[in-house]
């Protein structure tokens, strides 16, 4: 019986189990929601039991589904790794590398030139850049091998299964406020000033990144109140323009995301923020390893020439 199970059924189950939402799973698989439901029902029929409890308001794993997920997810990862490494043995440095970019500001100013250099040096390779939003769960997607690597704000989670590679950017921090905000006329501000006001919260962002940009407490010990949840930079800037919040971030953010009713103030006393490449330890394909090596080699020259 098991020989007849389709790999797509397994992938659909794992996607729904990770998202607990058939619609989001369908988007990630580039399928219709009805097709994903059909694949899950087919797997449930082969197994002989329900894997999910479904209602109009929520989806959750049954005990049977949780049992299967815990055993199937690492096995699926091992299967993908075996196929990847075998392909590399057959083709050498070739194929597509998928790099998830957690907001354009995390890519830094040199990632696109690096991609061009790489594709010229390795004409059988292509780099596919995927912009990720706040709610994209980047490290989950990386661990499920949907991405070869991430370009993301650091620090990364303290996890031996993750490797932090070359640093892509080092930049100063700013505070974005409304044009008519009481702080707008200041030459600079500090995190102590941030504690006087409410700021945004990004519940789905990696905790390490969130705590780096929005520390729980200011240097004087007062809490920094992250009380307005947002799902995008544009949404954050709208709340700033309305005077609801202030928004501590990095200097390049307004290069990529703009709003006419906000201004940026330098943040004094805050260490520079870094972004870099992160990948699964020991799981890079030959092409992805070649790209990581090229970034480490060429990036210092690009920074020097800038």
User: What is the count of distinct domains?
Assistant: 3
Described by strand count, sense and barrel closure, the largest sheet is:
5 strands, mixed
| CATH architectural name of the largest domain | 3-Layer(aba) Sandwich
Instruction: Report the count of strand segments.
Output: 12
How much helical structure, as a percent, in the residues?
40-55%
Structural class: alpha/beta
Low-confidence runs: none
CATH class of the largest domain: Alpha Beta
Q: What percentage of amino acids are in beta strands?
A: 15-25%
* CATH homology superfamily of the largest domain: Periplasmic binding protein-like II
Q: What is the end-to-end distance?
A: 61 Å
Order of helix and strand elements from N to C terminus:
HHHEEHEHHEHEEEHEHEHEHEEH
Tell me what you see in this structure.
InterPro entries: LysR_HTH_N, LysR_subst-bd, Ribosomal_uS2_CS, WH-like_DNA-bd_sf, WH_DNA-bd_sf. Residues 5-62 form the HTH lysR-type domain. This is DNA-binding transcriptional regulator, LysR family. It comes from Microbispora rosea. One of its GO terms (molecular function) is DNA binding. With 306 residues, this protein is of the alpha/beta class. The protein has three domains: 2-86, Winged helix-like DNA-binding domain superfamily/Winged helix DNA-binding domain (Arc Repressor Mutant, subunit A, Orthogonal Bundle); 92-170 and 274-305, Periplasmic binding protein-like II (D-Maltodextrin-Binding Protein, domain 2); 173-271, D-Maltodextrin-Binding Protein, domain 2 (3-Layer(aba) Sandwich). Helix content is 42%, strand content 23%. It is built from twelve helices and twelve strands. It has helices at residues 7-19, 22-29, 33-47, 63-91, 104-107, 111-121, 138-143, 191-194, 207-213, 233-241, 253-256, 286-305, and strands at residues 52-54, 59-61, 95-102, 125-132, 149-153, 162-171, 173-178, 198-201, 225-229, 247-250, 262-266, 273-280. The strands form four sheets. It has a five-stranded mixed β-sheet with strand order 4-3-5-12-6. Strand 8, helix 9 and strand 9 (225-229) form a beta-alpha-beta unit. Helix 1 (7-19) crosses helix 4 and helix 6 crosses helix 12. It is globular. It starts with 6 loop residues before the first helix and ends with a helix. The model has no long low-confidence stretch (mean pLDDT 91).
């Amino acid at each position: 019986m098991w020989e007849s199970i389709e790999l797509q059924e397994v992938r659909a189950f794992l996607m729904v189990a990770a998202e607990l939402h058939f619609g989001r799973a369908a988007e990630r698989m580039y399928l219709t929601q009805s097709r994903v439901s059909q694949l899950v029902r087919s797997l449930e029929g082969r197994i002989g039991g329900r894997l999910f409890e479904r209602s109009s308001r929520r989806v959750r794993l049954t005990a049977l589904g949780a049992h299967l997920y815990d055993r199937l997810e690492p096995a699926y990862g091992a299967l993908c790794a075996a196929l990847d490494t075998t392909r590399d043995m057959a083709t050498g440095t070739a194929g597509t590398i998928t790099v998830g970019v957690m907001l354009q500001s995390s890519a830094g100013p040199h990632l696109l030139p690096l991609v061009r250099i790489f594709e010229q040096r390795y004409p059988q390779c292509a780099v596919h850049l995927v912009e990720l939003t706040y709610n994209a769960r980047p490290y989950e997607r990386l661990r499920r091998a949907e991405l070869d690597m991430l370009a993301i704000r650091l620090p990364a989670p303290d996890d031996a299964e993750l490797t932090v590679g070359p640093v892509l950017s080092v930049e100063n921090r700013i505070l974005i406020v409304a044009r008519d905000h009481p702080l707008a006329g200041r030459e600079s501000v500090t995190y102590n000033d941030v504690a006087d006001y409410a700021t945004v919260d990004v519940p789905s962002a990696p905790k390490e990144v969130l705590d780096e940009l929005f520390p729980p407490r200011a240097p004087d010990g007062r809490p920094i109140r992250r009380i307005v949840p947002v799902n995008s930079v544009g949404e954050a800037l709208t709340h700033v323009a309305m005077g609801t919040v202030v928004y501590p971030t990095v200097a390049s953010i307004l290069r990529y995301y703009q709003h006419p009713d906000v201004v940026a103030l330098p943040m004094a006393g805050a260490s520079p923020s870094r972004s870099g490449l992160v990948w699964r330890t020991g799981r890079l394909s030959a092409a992805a390893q070649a790209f990581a090596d090229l970034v480490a080699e060429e990036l210092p020259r690009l920074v020097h020439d800038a």
